[in-house]
Amino acid sequence: MSANKFLLLIFTVIVSVLIYSCKEEIVGVRNENQAPETSVTLYPDSVIIPQQTRLLVSWWGDDPDGLVAGFYFRWDDEAWEFTASNDSLFSLKIGATDTTFRFNVAAVDAEGNGKYDQQIFQNNIDFGPEPFIDKNSNGVWDSNEKYFDLGLIDPSPAEFFFPLKNSAPTIEWNELSFLPDTSFPVMSFGWIAEDIDGTESILKINIALNDTLNPDNIISLDGSVRTITLRTNEFASQNPLMEILIEGQENNINPEKLPGLLFDNLNILFVQAEDISGAKSEFIRLPGIDPDDYWYVRKPVSNFLIIDDYATSDNAASFYAAMFDSLGLSGDYDVYSKLDSIPYKNVTFLETIKLFDYLFWYTDNNPSIDLASFSTQKYLSQGGKVAFSMQFPQTVDPVELQSFIPIISDSIGSKVSLLPGTEIASDTTDPAYPNLKLTLNVFRVKSFYLSELAANPIYYYPNGELPGFTGFTNIELTEFFIALPLDKCNGTGNVKSLLQKIFFDDFGITR
Q: Using a CB cutoff of 8 Å and minimum separation of 24, what contacts does 340-345 make?
């Protein structure tokens, strides 16, 4: 017999034996399914020092005769929950004091009965129905939905005790929060609130004016709030309430108002963070404890505000005070200055001027154009009326100017200076807009071409010093603008008449 025939014979015999063997029944008793065993990862420091309330727990199971399908776990005596994962990040809610939590986890093997069970009852525990993936979110298992066909559950679940330490949140003022020594009843505040257990655990921000001992004086905001603007126009009230604009937004006003404001007096704002357990930070305060720091809240005496936008001291303030006093408004107007020392500048300024119906805004060569650009149209849309006497720096963004005055942005005339005696003529037949004349040098002068559909021309230079117009109103007669300091335009004594025309005739202010 050749070698090849011998190998073929041997192969045939082996295959025949295997085929025959497959037809034989298995003799003996099948071993019963054994339950898996479960273990929890032990953190070395968790048995020594308390942990934080955000806790990562790991576990695993060992099945001596099969595979582990998943795990049931629970905290203390809560209901058992199923998971196919070997770990999870838990956020545990605890009280203001340290707490110890009991954690149990039991492995489940994969040797189920091949059908969906509406109830799993093992080890004298009702685990409920078998878990499944609820594709249609109807809360019940449907035949086309995948489920976990579970077998035996570890009869002695792993148990571990976690001592947890609750850390109170912290809070501090942000860098934009400071207080001018005096303001009208509008102010904005911002803070940084943190919690080592996670910022999402901060449940409340508590605020109060002047008194933190009376619980009725404390308003609780959502824990996510980080900036607010306070305002009130309850000027006749002995106990005014302040609206709380969340993040300074007009469309997000807190339903509760803040009590405690003291008009024409010193005030203190207190802020505190509180977490989901009730643990609280200390109250922080503005102004601080330095006796030289104070916040005096002035109640408006009128609906007319003069905005002093001079960067340096000048005789302008006394000039305009004399002018408006001579118009019969003595003691019937308010003054707002130091515009560079306003926290959360845009929103605080806008909400302040909205307390008034009429504005007169005068500036030197360093005007707050950013504030004018941000606030003017919003103020006018609320029904306000404003007159500007504004000078400009050497360079200015014409597009920014166009945002609050009705000009053509690419047609600005400029001149280094104008001499005393320069005439400013009225371009209208209305004699109530009188001619003006400079009394002092004026530097970095500007003039404009106007938007014909939005502006009424009023003042120009008759001797051709600059093209276009230097003074005008809008069509609605709710805004007057002159690119000159009126306190230096009284060479003919006509500034009083002009102010009379603007505020009494055009704007309708009453004495």
A: 340/311, 340/368, 341/178, 341/180, 342/180, 343/176, 343/177, 343/178, 343/179, 343/180, 343/187, 343/188, 343/189, 343/190, 344/176, 344/188, 344/189, 344/190, 344/227, 344/229, 344/248, 345/370, 345/371
Look up the CATH architecture of domain 170-297: Sandwich (2.60)
pTM: 0.75
153 within 8 A of 123, measured Cβ to Cβ? yes
Encode pLDDT of 383-404 as tens digits: 999 999 999 998 899 999 999 9
Tokens in use for 244? 């709380």
- Let me know: does 375 contact 384? Beta carbons within 8 Å: no
- Residue 74, beta-bridge partner list: 104
Amino acid sitting at position 168: A
* Cβ pair 481, 472 in contact under 8 A: yes
CB atoms near residue 429 (< 10 Å)? 6
Neighbours of 400 (CB within 10 A): 14
Q: How far apart are CA 372 and CA 379, in angstroms?
A: 10
Q: Coil, strand, or helix at residue 349?
A: helix
C-beta of residue 303 within 8 angstroms of C-beta of residue 486: no
Q: Do residues 192 and 242 lie in contact, with contact meaning Cβ atoms separated by under 8 Å?
A: no
Query: What residue type is assigned to position 375 of the chain?
Result: S
Residue with tokens 């065993």: 37
CATH number, span 304-506: 3.40.50.880
Q: With beta carbons less than 8 A apart as the criterion, state whether 42 and 51 touch.
A: no
3 state DSSP class of 377: helix
Which parts of the chain register pLDDT below 50? Answer: 2-26, 28, 44-51
Between the two ends of the chain, the Cα-to-Cα distance in Å is 135
**What is the DSSP code (8-state) at residue 44?**
G
Q: What percent of the chain has pLDDT over 70?
A: 90
**Choices 1.10.1740, 1.10.150, 2.60.40, 1.25.40: CATH for 37-164:** 2.60.40
Residue 310 amino acid letter = Y
In angstroms, rounded to a whole number, what is the distance separating the alpha carbons of residues 405 and 128?
71
294, 181 contact by CB (below 8 A): yes
Domain with CATH 3.40.50.880 in the chain: 304-506
Residues of the chain with CATH 2.60.40: 37-164, 170-297
For residue 422, how far is the Cα from the chain centroid? 51
